[in-house]
User: Fold this.
Amino acid sequence: MTAYNYYLEAIKKASLGLILISASAAVLAFVWAERSKPDYEVHYSYLVSLSERETSSSFRYDGYYALSATDLFTTTLASWVKTPEVIAAAYRQANLTAPSEEPRALFRAVQANKTGPQLVEIVVRHKDKEKALRLTEGLQEVMKENVEKYHKEGIPALIFKVIPTESWVGVGRVAAAVISVSVFLLVLFGGVNVVLLRASLSAEAKQSED
Assistant:
């Protein structure tokens, strides 16, 4: 028997058990996903515009330079709003307990994407709808204070206006079917690797005995 046939035979013998274990894991994952509490998502956006600019006889922030400066500030705002210290401050502002001291846990609560030269889309997540709205209000208040501080303590060449749009609340549910299929394939491939490893060790043991 060739090595290929040997390993193929080992997989065939274990195939029924592998499929049953993978299917069981997939069913459990599906049930867990269906029963898991959905996240409430508060969506709103920041609109950025250049409200004041410094002028001089040698240089003016007009046209291309004004648009470029606004675009750069919008990029800064998109990164700024999802930093751990800002999100933690938003929790404190809303009188809520942060989910964890780990940055990853905070990152999951706030998502920010720059989708245009003057537009940043924000998504705030929480298991409780009322707390999601409070966290959103806290985040908006913290960012308002941060932008005001930036203009007050920075170089007063440009002043930007940052306007939050009206909020909308949606529900983000877990994709149970996708998770179930992913778990099935993961367990199946993992099981196949275990079978191949055991077959390989068994073959080496037989060779040693011979």
In short: The chain has a mean pLDDT of 85.
